[in-house]
């Protein structure tokens, strides 16, 4: 429980409560094994598939498909949040969300988006830059049907990103929906909910190395549909 004293310390920025670790001295030695141009697959999606397979099987990651999605509004003001990657193939990277949420409102004004997979236990990150397009209603519906009943109701109950007055308001909305659509009954796909497919324009594969001499290889889309690979300084 946070008591009043705690909060006061945090607000006044007094040391002690707020700085239990010496962050400046926290660092890890990264692996020797690197990433070379010769190691790379022909396309960033094929390379992503290789790394994702490793992240999912040997990465010791709680949710390897968790990614940070960054958007910016029409004035260029950025915001980030974690979402789950639900599918990927040569057409792009797909996640699902509420179309009234802040991220979706940003994307309606400015479709440029960045996805970041923070695979820290493997000293890896993948950064996708691209353009987001809404998935078709059929694709959204097909995915919605695979969600657990409770998550389907949750998608209806939530006015994601809107300010609400109390937790009770949310629980009451859910209870009402649960009564209307008991377990086993088909829940319609909410019209305000669906997917975004991020079509990549550039994908960077970052492998941590010793002495901060990391490998950074970036695929950049070419006019003819192919990919150019660039090495970036760490
Ligand atoms: C591990 C994790 C997974 C999440 N997955 C999703 C998701 O797939 N879709 C989603 O809309 N929100 C997801 N969220 C919640 C988002 O981080 C965020 O709170 C929500 O989408 C509202 O963001 P916005 O107000 O910036 O639009 C997830 C959060 C966490 C921590």
From TrEMBL:
Keywords from the named record: Flavoprotein, FMN, Oxidoreductase, Pyridoxine biosynthesis
Binding positions for substrate per the UniProt entry: 86, 143, 147, 151, 212-214
One Pfam family matching this protein: PNPOx_N
Positions with a binding annotation for FMN: 81-86, 96-97, 102-103, 125, 160-161, 206, 216
Catalysed reaction equations from the record: pyridoxine 5'-phosphate + O2 = pyridoxal 5'-phosphate + H2O2; pyridoxamine 5'-phosphate + O2 + H2O = pyridoxal 5'-phosphate + H2O2 + NH4(+)
Chain intervals with Basic and acidic residues compositional bias: 1-13
The Pyridoxine 5'-phosphate oxidase dimerisation C-terminal domain, residue ranges: 193-234
Pathway: Cofactor metabolism; pyridoxal 5'-phosphate salvage; pyridoxal 5'-phosphate from pyridoxine 5'-phosphate: step 1/1; Cofactor metabolism; pyridoxal 5'-phosphate salvage; pyridoxal 5'-phosphate from pyridoxamine 5'-phosphate: step 1/1
Residues covered by the Pyridoxamine 5'-phosphate oxidase N-terminal domain: 61-177
Record carries keyword Flavoprotein: yes
Top EC class for this record: oxidoreductase
InterPro entries named in the record: Pyridox_Oxase, Pyridox_Oxase_CS, Pyridox_Oxase_N, Pyridoxamine_oxidase_dimer_C, Split_barrel_FMN-bd
Flavoprotein in keyword set: yes
Cofactor note: Binds 1 FMN per subunit.
E.C. designation(s): 1.4.3.5
Listed cofactors: FMN
Chain intervals for the UniProt region annotation (Disordered): 1-22
NCBIfam families xrefs: pdxH, PRK05679.1
Family to which this protein belongs: Belongs to the pyridoxamine 5'-phosphate oxidase family.
Subunit organization: Homodimer.
Described purpose of this protein according to its UniProt entry: Catalyzes the oxidation of either pyridoxine 5'-phosphate (PNP) or pyridoxamine 5'-phosphate (PMP) into pyridoxal 5'-phosphate (PLP).
Protein name: Pyridoxine/pyridoxamine 5'-phosphate oxidase
Organism: Streptomyces thermoalcalitolerans
This protein's encoding gene: pdxH
């Amino acid at each position: 429980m946070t008591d009043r004293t705690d909060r006061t310390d945090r607000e006044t920025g007094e040391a002690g409560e707020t700085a239990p670790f010496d962050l400046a001295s926290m660092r890890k030695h990264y692996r020797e094994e690197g990433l070379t141009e010769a190691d790379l697959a022909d396309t960033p999606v094929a390379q992503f598939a290789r790394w994702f397979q490793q992240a999912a099987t040997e990465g010791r990651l709680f949710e390897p498909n968790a990614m940070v999605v960054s958007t910016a509004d029409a004035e260029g003001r950025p915001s980030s949040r974690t979402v789950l990657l639900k599918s990927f193939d040569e057409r792009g990277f797909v996640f699902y969300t509420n179309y009234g949420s802040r991220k979706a409102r940003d994307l309606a004004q400015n479709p440029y988006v960045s996805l970041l997979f923070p695979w820290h236990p493997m000293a890896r990150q993948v950064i996708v830059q691209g353009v987001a397009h809404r998935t078709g209603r059929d694709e959204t519906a097909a995915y919605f049907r695979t969600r657990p009943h409770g998550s389907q109701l949750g998608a209806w109950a939530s006015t994601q990103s809107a300010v609400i007055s109390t937790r009770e308001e949310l629980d009451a909305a859910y209870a009402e929906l649960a009564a209307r659509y008991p377990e086993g009954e088909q829940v319609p796909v909410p019209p305000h909910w669906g997917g975004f497919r991020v079509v990549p324009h550039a994908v960077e594969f970052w492998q941590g190395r010793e002495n901060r001499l990391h490998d950074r290889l970036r695929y950049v889309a070419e006019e003819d549909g192919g990919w150019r690979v660039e090495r970036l300084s760490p």
